[in-house]
């Protein structure tokens, strides 16, 4: 594959402009930073110097991207509405910003044939400097016996009020040695806070409190909380009560049916 070396800001600038107004943040990283944390079975099969970009959703994604997407009836009742919206935003931005480039776009919910995730979102968030990944191994003298505790990333501005959505891998684009690895901001240096975080995330994640482990600059709106605290199987019914209906895939012209609800 032909590769060329770029200045990172030249690649990220247009994508940042496009996605930030929709409530997303982007963080560039080198594939090698990610692979160096993982066993070979979880590696991305690209050279270490290849460019990747992590995409996060912030609290405003719901109002800036999701509700408008639903209003435009971009949604078809086949798979998760948020996933469809994120995919729509990311693929439109990628095709506008990199029309010539072959970009491998991986979403957080996608699995490989081996049933492993297509990328480990939290490891990517940590190595790109987006959000520190607090893991069981980051707590000395663990109080949980042998119990497995899942780790969680904390964003320096949004605490836990964000989600990691996608990784874009530019196999043909390498970045030079001027791109140095950022250090993820450690917002919870103390053992006690780390224990509190991991316990809240593992034992009480449904009450949202782990998200407030540091004071966030913004949280999800009440409407967004209503949406995410509704069971996935009942979200379509909730969207209907908000006046949103999925697009019928057999519709020839969506304007006709929009008029029916006019
Ligand atoms: C499978 C999955 C689950 C499973 C299993 C959880 C797990 N962590 O394994 C279940 C269904 C239980 C689950 C539940 C939830 N999940 Co979940 N889940 C995932 C998913 C799809 C894959 C995680 C996975 O399989 N990891 C594999 C394991 C082996 O990875 P690991 O433990 O990190 O181990 C690696 C690292 O330790 C690395 N490593 C080793 N040393 C070092 C050192 C450093 C410094 C670093 C960086 C890495 C590193 O090597 C290990 C692999 O060899 C991710 C999305 C994604 N694509 O990543 C979301 C994700 C982890 N889930 C998420 C959330 C929010 C939840 C829930 C709260 C529900 C929800 N969606 O609201 C609950 C709460 C968890 C709980 N209390 O049980 C978020 C977490 C966000 C955050 N702030 O961290 C993610 C990232 C999804 C997202 N879109 O944002 N989840």
Please render the helix and strand layout as text.
Blueprint lengths: L3 E3 L1 H13 L3 E7 H5 L14 E8 L3 H11 L9 H17 L5 E5 L13 H7 L4 E3 L17 E3 L8 E13 L15 H13 L18 H8 L5 H7 L12 H7 L2
Helix pairs in contact: 1-4, 3-4
Bound molecules: cobalamin.
Helix content: 25-40%
Name the structural class. Answer: alpha+beta
Helix count, DSSP H or I runs of 4 or more residues: 9
What Rg is obtained from the alpha carbons, in whole angstroms?
A: 20 Å
What average pLDDT do the residues reach?
92
Q: Give the ligands present.
A: cobalamin
SS elements, strand count: 7
N- and C-termini, Cα separation? 52 Å
Model description:
By secondary structure, this protein is of the alpha+beta class. The protein has one domain. Helix content is about 35%, strand content about 15%. The chain is built from 9 helices and 7 strands, in the order E-H-E-H-E-H-H-E-H-E-E-E-H-H-H-H. Strands 1, 2, 3, 4 and 7 form a 5-stranded mixed β-sheet that branches. The protein has a two-stranded antiparallel ribbon with strand order 5-6. The longest helix has 17 residues. The radius of gyration is 20 Å and the shape is globular. The C terminus is likely disordered. Bound molecules: cobalamin.
Q: What is the structure about, briefly put?
A:
The chain has 262 residues and is an alpha+beta fold.
List keywords for this structure.
flavoprotein, 34% helix, Cyanocobalamin reductase / alkylcobalamin dealkylase, 9 helices, globular, alpha+beta, binds cobalamin, FAD, 262 residues, 7 strands, FMN, two-stranded antiparallel ribbon, MMACHC
């Amino acid at each position: 594959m032909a590769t060329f070396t770029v200045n990172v800001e030249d690649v990220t600038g247009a994508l940042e402009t496009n996605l930030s107004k929709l409530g997303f943040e982007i963080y560039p990283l080198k594939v090698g930073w990610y692979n160096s944390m993982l066993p070979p079975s979880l590696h991305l099969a690209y050279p270490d110097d290849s460019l990747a970009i992590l995409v996060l959703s912030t609290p405003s994604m719901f109002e800036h991207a999701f509700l408008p997407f639903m209003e435009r009836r971009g949604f078809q009742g086949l798979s998760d509405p948020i996933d469809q919206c994120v995919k729509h935003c990311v693929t439109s931005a990628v095709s506008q910003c990199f029309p010539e480039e072959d970009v491998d776009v991986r979403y957080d919910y996608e699995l490989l044939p081996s049933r492993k995730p297509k990328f480990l979102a939290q490891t990517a968030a940590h190595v790109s400097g987006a959000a520190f990944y607090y893991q069981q191994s980051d707590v000395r003298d663990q109080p949980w016996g042998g119990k497995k505790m899942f780790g969680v990333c904390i964003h320096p501005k949004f605490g836990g009020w964000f989600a990691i959505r996608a990784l874009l891998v530019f196999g043909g684009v390498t970045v030079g040695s001027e791109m140095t690895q950022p250090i993820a901001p450690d917002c919870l240096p103390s053992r006690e806070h780390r224990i509190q975080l991991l316990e809240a995330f593992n034992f009480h994640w449904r009450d949202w409190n782990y998200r407030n482990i540091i004071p966030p600059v913004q949280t999800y709106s009440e409407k967004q909380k209503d949406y995410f605290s509704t069971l996935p199987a009942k979200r379509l019914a909730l969207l209907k009560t908000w006046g949103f209906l999925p697009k019928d895939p057999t519709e020839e012209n969506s304007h006709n049916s929009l008029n029916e609800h006019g």
